[in-house]
Design a protein that fits this description.
two-stranded antiparallel sheet; five-stranded mixed beta sheet; 5 helices; globular; alpha/beta; Glutaredoxin; about 160 residues
């Protein structure tokens, strides 16, 4: 096979499809996933809350940093109707459990080992964060993480919590 054709084919396979990506204004795709202990967590089970979804993996350095900061936000706003779910895209439940044993968080972390939920949300990199209003509509989407985003996240959470 010609190396140029191989490279093009390889890039097409790796290039994320963003035409149907979940974005602000879309209804959040429903899911039901198990956590490391086998307990099921679903998006529908949190209806009426402002929901933060964080797609992450234990091998992603910025994901690890973000997860700790999201836990602080979860603790701060949980009593006001704020829920968070970490969705690990790592295929190893053992690796995720080992990470969470060292760095636990207060919100549920579920495993998307088959990648179906990640496919529904169609993000292009990790971490990927979605803020969903009480109405089930995605209101904000963020890719990547840096400390400068924390005030932005908090402002968006407060704004969404103030809506009926």
């Amino acid at each position: 096979m010609n190396i140029n054709i191989f490279c093009i084919a390889f890039l097409l396979v790796l290039t994320p499809v963003t035409v149907n990506a979940a974005r602000g204004g879309d209804r959040a795709p429903a899911f039901q996933l198990a956590d490391a202990n086998g307990a099921m967590v679903s998006l529908d089970g949190l209806k009426g809350n402002v929901i933060l979804l964080s797609f992450w993996a234990p091998w992603c350095v910025s994901c690890r940093d973000e997860l700790a900061e999201l836990d602080r936000l979860y603790i701060k706003y949980h009593d006001r109707g704020f829920a968070a779910i970490g969705i690990s895209v790592d295929s190893s439940a053992e690796r995720v459990a080992a990470f969470l044993k060292k760095r636990p968080v207060g919100f549920p972390v579920v495993l998307d080992t088959r990648g179906e939920t990640a496919e529904d949300y169609r993000f292009s990199g990790l971490p990927a964060l979605y803020l969903i209003g009480r109405d089930g509509i995605i209101r904000y989407v963020h890719q990547g993480f840096s400390g400068e985003l924390l005030p932005v996240y908090e402002k968006e959470i407060i704004e969404l919590l103030s809506r009926p």
